[in-house]
């Protein structure tokens, strides 16, 4: 088998991307579709789903709140009906959560961040694993963590806590599922260009009392390559991790961040 063929996911791969209506999730969904995969996405944003499926009619979609177990069950009913099984789960759901000093954080905002960012990973993994165990197509779970899942992140403790927990969940599942041939890895994106990062920078600037431009420059100074990554950079890593070339890659937390040195 040639190196080129190893680097491409198998044609017809059955892929579920959570929070796939926009942002990184949509970039991953488009990448897999372009590579010949059969893709289903879910998202809480109906308008985002409608835009994606209008742009890429071959992608299936379910509107769902990933933090609600009943909604997750609906997603898997639709995946079973549309795809007949599953080879790849991309657990991409996540929110930024509140920004502020720990003593000032609202408990409801903390609980919501944990529910969306961490509990959803469990809900989807629990339903996906029986399907993945039946797959013969190099099955895998890709959990979306963050560079905040390997570094401390002042004023963003709810977000960072969930992203560290995702890495722990991933490593535990890699051990648990390895004997069944199911691989589990996490991608840790860094500063990703886009509206969400702009909002995070603005919120952090307000919390620390500096200008938005100064905060943006501070973020770039922390990156060895002095540039943000793109959504397509993250999508490319997801595609690689689902390819035959990555058949012995499991239990890994892989940063796509230009080497962020500190937060």
Automatic annotation (TrEMBL):
<dbReference type="GO" id="GO:0016616">
    <property type="term" value="F:oxidoreductase activity, acting on the CH-OH group of donors, NAD or NADP as acceptor"/>
</dbReference>
<dbReference type="InterPro" id="IPR020904">
    <property type="entry name" value="Sc_DH/Rdtase_CS"/>
</dbReference>
<dbReference type="InterPro" id="IPR002347">
    <property type="entry name" value="SDR_fam"/>
</dbReference>
<protein>
    <submittedName>
        <fullName>NAD(P)-dependent dehydrogenase (Short-subunit alcohol dehydrogenase family)</fullName>
    </submittedName>
</protein>
<dbReference type="InterPro" id="IPR036291">
    <property type="entry name" value="NAD(P)-bd_dom_sf"/>
</dbReference>
<dbReference type="Pfam" id="PF13561">
    <property type="entry name" value="adh_short_C2"/>
</dbReference>
<keyword id="KW-0560">Oxidoreductase</keyword>
<comment type="similarity">
    <text>Belongs to the short-chain dehydrogenases/reductases (SDR) family.</text>
</comment>
């Amino acid at each position: 088998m040639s190196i080129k063929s190893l680097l491409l996911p198998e044609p017809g791969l059955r892929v579920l991307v959570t929070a796939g209506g926009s942002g990184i999730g949509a970039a991953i969904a488009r990448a897999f579709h372009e590579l010949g995969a059969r893709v289903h996405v879910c998202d809480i944003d109906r308008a985002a789903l409608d835009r994606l499926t209008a742009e890429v009619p071959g992608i299936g979609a379910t509107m769902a709140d990933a933090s609600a177990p009943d909604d997750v069950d609906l997603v898997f009913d639709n995946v079973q009906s549309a795809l007949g099984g599953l080879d790849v789960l991309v657990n991409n759901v996540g929110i930024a959560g509140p920004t502020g000093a720990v003593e000032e954080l609202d408990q409801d905002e903390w609980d919501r961040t944990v529910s969306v960012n961490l509990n959803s990973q469990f809900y989807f993994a629990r339903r996906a694993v029986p399907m993945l165990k039946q797959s013969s197509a190099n099955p895998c779970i890709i959990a979306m963590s963050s560079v905040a899942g390997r570094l401390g992140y002042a004023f963003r403790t709810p977000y960072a806590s969930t992203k560290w927990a995702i890495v722990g969940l991933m490593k535990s599942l890699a051990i648990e599922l390895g004997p069944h041939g199911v691989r589990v890895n996490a991608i840790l994106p860094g500063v990703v260009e886009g509206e969400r990062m702009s909002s995070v920078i603005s919120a952090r600037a307000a919390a620390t009392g500096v200008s938005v431009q100064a905060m943006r420059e501070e973020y770039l100074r922390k990156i060895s390559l002095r540039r943000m990554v793109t959504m397509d950079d993250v999508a490319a890593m997801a595609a690689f991790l689902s390819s035959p070339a990555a058949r012995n890659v499991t239990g890994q937390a892989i940063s796509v961040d230009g080497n962020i040195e500190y937060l």
